[in-house]
Write the structure tokens for this entry.
Amino acid sequence: MKRKTMVAALALLMGSGALTACGGSGGTANQTGNQSGSQAPAAVSSDTLTVGLSADPPKLDPKLSTALVDRQVMINIYDTLFTIGPNNEIEPGLVEKYEVSQDGKTYTFHLRHGVKFQDGTPFNAAAVKFNIQRDQEKDSLQRSYLTPIVGIDTPDDYTVVLHLNKAYSPLLALFTDRPGMMVSPTAVQKEGADFVNHPVGSGPYEFKERVKGDHVTLVKNPDYWQSGQPHFNTVTYKIFTDQNVEVANLQSGQVQIIDTMPAQQVATLSQNPNFTVINQPGFGFQGLYLNVKQAPFDNKYLREAVELGIDRKALVDTVFKGAASPGYTPFSQASSAYNQAQDTPPQPDAAKIKDLLAKGGKPNGFTFELQTAATPVSVQAAQVIQGMLSQYGIQVQIKQLEFGTLLDNADKHNFQAAALGWSGRLDPDQNIYSWFHTDGSQNDEQYSNPQVDQLLDQARSQLDPQERAKTYSQIMDIIHDDAPYVFLYHQNNLIAYNKHLTGFEYRADGLLRLATVSAQ
Amino acid sequence: MAYVFQRILTMVPVLFFLSVMVFGLIHLIPGDPAQVILGQEATPEAIAQMRMKLGLDQPVPLQYWHWLQHALAGNLGQSLVDGEPVSHLIAQRLPVTIELAVGTILVALLIAFPFGILAAVYRGRWLDAAALFTSTVGMSVPSFWLGILLLIGFTVKLHWFPSSGYVPMWQNLGQNLHAMVLPVVATGVREAAVLMRMLRSSLLDVLHQDYVRTARAKGLYGWVVIIRHALRNALIPVITTGGLQIAGLLGGLVITEQIFALPGFGSLLVQSVFSRDYTTVQGATLVAALLVVVVNLVVDLVYGVVDPRLRLGKESR
């Protein structure tokens, strides 16, 4: 018992943010946990569900939200026009049926009847029009996603017709996310700028109150349109700034479900019979930006040498212990554009790397600076990469930065290599376009290839997912050759909950949809 | 009274200097609030729009001037991240940290006084050795380590205390105290170790002075001499240390707050630096500085109560 406590304490300490400064060397102690957790399972209340969140959601208004964690709470306050199915297919939400015109420029949505917002306002075509127009306003942060929509008609109360200026295949997938979250028009008019603090949707739970930095409380929407749902009277989101502490709170019974956890804790928690652990690929990817406008990576051969010199499988095994999968494209298994052959990283090939270095004019290797976030996991990953590349004479100088600074440097192209990935979205376009299109907002590597631009635009106009997937494969062939970004791995969604909870339906976006969850 | 007033007056330039420093320093940190708020996918137009909305497109001195004008009128502005009034955020978070700091000092005093006195009285004997050894251990164990051990032992394993779930005192005192026990012990032990050593050595110093010997020669009992005569004089350095400790605790409890998921002032400050929430950083540091100055003032006034020789004004002559 004592030993176990020590092991658990060590695991906590090693992952703890408190030790960031000397992180990197630890992480093996928690592998010894082969015992089954013996502490009594905490009883679960059927009245209140407490959810652990790894950050404080800044803005609970879909129009103004940019933080990932906002979506965790918003997905239970708001219904979306479409939703994600178990196999990542797009399913009806508030839109029951839809048609698309041949040219992909006209969408007709048939809305669900009998839905009301939590303040009693009826959900209808006017509300959908109001929401889309609101998301297109100048101060909306969803504006850029909805630019192709140039006209909205409402022929009757339950039909909405969207007119696009060009075919735009990501549209429906976007409506499973923030742009598809329907807010009550009456509440927006009543609250004005304060709507963000008094959000009203039509979802299973209504917003009640929040204390910034501590908790957000939702209560049951008694008139929810899905009969029999939701099951709890109250849902409280408790905010933890340290993920190890979040896990400890799941174990102590203070919270019953957590949105994420450190990769090192997955093995231990999975063996504990009191908890269910979900460890599934999400839509995201991680990798290294290589600045193609700056030495040494203005040289394509040197970029390729780095790309081929990293053993992704070894990296993932060392750092993530099964909580991530090696990757070579932005598209994980969960994506409709997933191409298994293409996403399988090549094995490092010393002869080929030597050849590339010679072609690049650096036969004896070279040195570059890798900027990375100063979190234990990122730093450990950077150190593993450093070790791998040094075999080929490529010396990596690791520069640890606080995340805001890293983001700023990346945005200003003030780096040689920068370790920055993406949390991922359902539609493949949202995981590739803005990284590699010349005008893309996340093209921090300053890559520009007219052929890639043209193919990226072409994919947006292709409505058939299989045709699109082919285009993306073509794009990835070019990107692998040019190597402006080194794809490394796909991070998994790591969710854990108390065994006494039932009905949780996992989706690859990692969001905790709570309408169906109940206590046993 | 005049003394207090004079002390308060000297605070003004200190606070002004500090506000200029903080404003300058935070703008020197690389990273842009608009970028941090909007995240990776932000378009340059969205960033420009956001900077304008937040008033960050104006020259820094002008931004400071605006801030100062509002601050003098008692308005600390709104958080750049979520628009919440900074004064509201501080009012929400500060009581948590003050409670934690006061609790920590109480725990520290409860441990330090009996053991410090015993160690001094039984100097060189096993009790002294044991107390010194324990205090060395107490000082060497970082509070976050102790906090994590307490968390795992008493919440995950034993379920004696909640691992999180702070409730304000005025809402439910019992629940509040229940949640505060572990954090207060985690930080209190270390402070106790420091205070105990200070008390022991200061008391030893006093015990060898003539007036103590005189008191003993008058036939007073040992403990009366120690408590009524020696301890009072030995307290001055202890109060100084304790004051410094409280001041340090107000900003130094971040990790404890993190481990026990307490929505405190320290984590507010750290989070706002990370998110480049300039107005919150500015307001919070100002309040923190104010607190330190006030604590120092209180300590000085307590000196006067404990030691009549230090009293200012008529009676000191």
Remarks:
- Residues 1-40 of chain A have pLDDT under 50 and may be disordered.
- Chain A touches chain B through 54 residues (CB under 8 Å).
